[in-house]
């Protein structure tokens, strides 16, 4: 009996030791797994330190004297990084990345911003935008006592089309919506982006808020910014590779047979009554222009031309290259020249054009080019007929001023 008792004690001890060893092995495996995940993150092509900008410094105490945000190249590069973060937010969601392995945060944390809101498409649950705000606590940790001059308090960033299974259907649907209707107002994303931008503009003031987007996201940003501008709320706007409406225009003008096919295709695409209403509004604005000009004079009209979006296009990108087409002097333009562009030296938009010769489409349409070291941009001073067409309704007095009577 005594011998049996000793054996039982030995067996129990071995079992306990084995259990402890199992725990140690499991902990070791978990540690190795985390290290592997960390190595994978570090080697990931979308990791900030792999594909992010090389010569764009994070904010430091020197910004108290001379803010980096006053440099247009710095500002463009950082905002492009913020848009990249939105693409990665959706990829992180699709790939079930954890807080420790997520790729997106480094793209905003580096510049002392924090994520305060994600914009979700209720149709498929995908992330299509985000609101980033200045992170004062993170800045203080690096002895940045105040927000650098020119740095927005909040910025709404919108991604473009993501050719991945979970979101491609809704992204393409909005692409086709723009192609068919030259407007994105019928999309749930338009409504969500407009509400988010209006909220932060009311909280921080429009001069402290920025909106930015790439590709399809640039299309949303342009139309959302325009909607607020009509209400007298002017926010800084930066649009990278914005889609061109001339794609739809050219398809509809190639002949009767093609026109019939276009109508058939258009009837199958997502529709909305809002774009038509927007067009009607522009027509009404244009017809009232001369009458309002006689009443209020040019000074009142000039005061409305305050929203100047920044457009970044590549000549080799057929999606946005039509923005560089100059405004032709046709009879229609001559008859409505007061509606097709600003006067007295003002510009409707700042158009930055990059031309590296012939490039492949993916490279010319990519977002990474806008923070590259060898970027050579030229500010186009010619009038763009597409910009004039899209923004001409802003050159008329808003409804609130139409009701006023001169004294």
TrEMBL record:
<dbReference type="InterPro" id="IPR029058">
    <property type="entry name" value="AB_hydrolase_fold"/>
</dbReference>
<feature type="region of interest" description="Disordered">
    <location>
        <begin position="24"/>
        <end position="43"/>
    </location>
</feature>
<feature type="compositionally biased region" description="Basic and acidic residues">
    <location>
        <begin position="25"/>
        <end position="43"/>
    </location>
</feature>
<protein>
    <recommendedName>
        <fullName>Fungal lipase-like domain-containing protein</fullName>
    </recommendedName>
</protein>
């Amino acid at each position: 009996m005594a011998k049996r008792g000793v054996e039982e004690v030995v067996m129990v001890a071995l079992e306990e030791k084995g259990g402890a060893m199992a725990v140690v092995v499991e902990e070791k495996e978990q540690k190795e797994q985390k290290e592997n995940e960390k190595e994978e993150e570090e080697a990931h092509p979308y990791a900030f330190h792999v594909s992010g900008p090389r010569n764009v410094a994070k904010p430091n105490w020197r910004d108290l004297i001379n803010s980096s945000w006053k440099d247009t190249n710095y500002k463009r590069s950082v905002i492009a990084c913020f848009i990249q973060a939105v693409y990665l937010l959706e990829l992180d969601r699709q790939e079930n990345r954890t807080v420790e392995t997520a790729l997106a945060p480094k793209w905003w944390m580096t510049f002392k911003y924090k994520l305060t809101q994600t914009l979700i498409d209720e149709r498929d649950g995908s992330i299509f935008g985000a609101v980033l705000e200045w992170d004062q606590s993170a800045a203080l940790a690096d002895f940045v006592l105040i927000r650098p001059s020119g740095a927005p308090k909040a910025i709404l960033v919108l991604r473009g089309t993501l050719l991945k299974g979970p979101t491609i259907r809704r992204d393409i649907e909005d692409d086709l919506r723009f192609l068919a209707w030259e407007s994105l107002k019928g999309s749930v994303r338009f409504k969500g982006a407009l509400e988010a931008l209006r909220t932060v503009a009311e909280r921080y003031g429009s001069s402290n808020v920025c909106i930015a987007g790439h590709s399809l996201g640039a299309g949303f940003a342009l139309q959302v910014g325009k909607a607020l501008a009509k209400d007298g709320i002017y926010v800084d706007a930066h649009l990278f590779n914005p889609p061109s409406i001339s794609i739809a225009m050219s398809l509809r003008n190639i002949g009767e047979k093609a026109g019939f096919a276009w109508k058939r295709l258009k009837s199958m695409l997502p529709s909305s009554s809002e774009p038509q209403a927007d067009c009607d509004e522009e027509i009404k604005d244009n017809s009232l222009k001369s009458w309002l000009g006689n009443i209020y004079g040019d000074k009142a009209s000039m005061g409305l031309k305050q929203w100047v979006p920044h457009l970044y296009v590549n000549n080799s990108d057929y999606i946005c290259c039509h923005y560089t087409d100059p405004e032709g002097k046709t009879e229609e333009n001559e008859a409505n020249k007061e509606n097709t562009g600003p006067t007295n030296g003002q510009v409707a938009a700042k158009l930055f054009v990059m031309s590296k010769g012939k490039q492949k489409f993916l490279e010319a349409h990519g977002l990474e080019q806008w923070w590259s070291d060898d970027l050579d941009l030229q500010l186009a001073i010619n009038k763009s007929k597409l910009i004039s067409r899209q923004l001409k309704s802003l050159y008329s007095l808003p409804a609130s001023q139409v009701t006023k009577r001169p004294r």
